[in-house]
Structure formats: C-alpha cells, structure tokens
Here is the input.
Amino acid sequence: MKIPGVPPAELPDLNRAEDRISFIYLERSVIHRDSNALTATDDRGTVHIPAATIGALLLGPGTSITHEAIALLADHGATAVWVGERGVRYYAHGRSLAASSRLITAQAHAVSHRDRRLVVARAMYGLRFPGEDTAILTMQQLRGKEGARVRRLYREHATRTGITWNQRNYRPNDFSAGDPINQALSAAHACLYGIVHTVIVALGTAPGLGFIHTGHERAFVYDIADLYKAEITIPVAFDVAANNPTDIGADTRRAVRDRVHDGSILRRCVQDIRTLLLQPQPGGPIDDENESHGLWDESGYEVPAGLNYDDGQDIGF
Here is the structure.
C-alpha cells in the first residue's frame, strides 16, 4: 500500500552533522512545510529552509509550528527546542540531534566512575585556567582556586563600573530581595542556564548528570554554564546595574540576548561538551558520531543487532 505524503529521507541521503547549520532561531512567525523544506512566514514574507541543512530549530516567542513541519524535522534527524527570546530560556524540546547514544553513554559512564568523573571535573576547571596544570590539584584545591577567581572578577568589574560590591547574595525564590547587582547577576545567569540547557538536550545528553554539581535536575547545566560566566554574564550584569535600569531583570535579559546574538556561545558549548565527554587525545579530532545499533553482552562488548542468535537449544521460555 502506498503511504500518502512525501516519504522520509533515506539515511545515506541525510547531511552529516558537520555539514549542517547547527542552530537556526526563529521568532514571531508561522512555520510550515513545503515538500522537503520548512517555510517561515511573517509580515515580511516567506522564507524556505531546506530541512536537511538544519541541526536544531530554536522556536522563540510568537512562533507556531505545524504537525507537518515537526514531522519533517524528525524525518531529517533534526530537533526542535522551544526557547525564550534569543534562546535565553529553555522550555521544552523534541528529539535530540544524536544519531546514537554515544554521548549520553559516555556521560553516564564517566559520572558513575570516580576516577573518570574526576578526570572530567578537572578538565572543566582546566578550561577556566588555561595553561595551568589542574591535574595535580584536589577537588578542594580546585574549588578554592575557582572561588578566588570569581571573587577577583567581582572586584575587578565593580571597580570598572563604579558599583559598590559586598558579596554574592541572593534568594532563589525571592528575586527582589537582592540588591541591584545581585538581581542582575541572577537574571543573567538564568539566561545562560537556558542557553546551555538548550544545547545539552539538543545533543542528547542528560541535564541531571553533573560532574562538579550533583543532586539537581540541572546539575550538568550548571557545570557547563560555569565555564562562560566570567566572560558573558558577570560583565553584562555589572554593565546593566551600573546604568540604574528601571526594570533590571528585563534589561539584563535583553543585554544577555544581545551579547550572545552571534551564536558563538552555542558553537563553543557544543564543542566543549563533546570534548569533555569523549576525551580525545590532546590536539586530536573527535570522531564523528555515527548511528549504531547493537546488543549488550556481559563481556562488556556489543554484538551486532538484527541477527537471530538462536542456537537451536530449548532454553525453557
């Protein structure tokens, strides 16, 4: 029986992940399907986007998308993530970009083995201290080193902007309880968490399996976001607070949006996550992720799927 509609693409016809546009952000438009292309329509007209060229479609405020468009994304191995303005909030997502479970398996394996978890945690701290050997430091020493770095950053930006700085002080459930700079920092960090969360789910990794942070559903989000606070959210928050805004939360969110508008943070986040979890040789490439389907064996190795392993013996089922 012939199935109506445009047939899904065959696997060999799909673009490799490295040849795709990693993220496309749309807002205030209607997304539909025209053959094997997505269409985005607003008051300026309609744009066609070949579905096979997309890694992830970020759906911002004011978007609506049809069932046919979502089906087309799925057929071409892409994902949709519902986000806030310019991606500074994460709301929900469809399927991940991952063609296999390689990344999440590596994440689960590393986080559940003390030595491997320590390697990843040290590598995370190492990204904050380029050129320094973090492999010889204990986690307590690394935490202390990171705390000193953050305190120094706060003091430097306070001096730069003329803001009186006392300490980081906030209540997660009471935004208004903090002074203006603490409110700005909280708003900026929340935006960064949304951006990082978007990348984590798009790659098929688990937001709750953290290496430095633990026990929270967004532990891995906090791990990765901490890599970028020094250059994105901390300076943005001090800049906004120094201008005495009337709505510090909204103004900070817009400032973070403008700061990440070029998308470079998304590309860096993807690369950092893959490097941390797959641990390539120093200076070496990370192998492309290929779709695989095997069966687990107690030996620790996979055996091919799609085969009948019956040896003709009655095993009593």
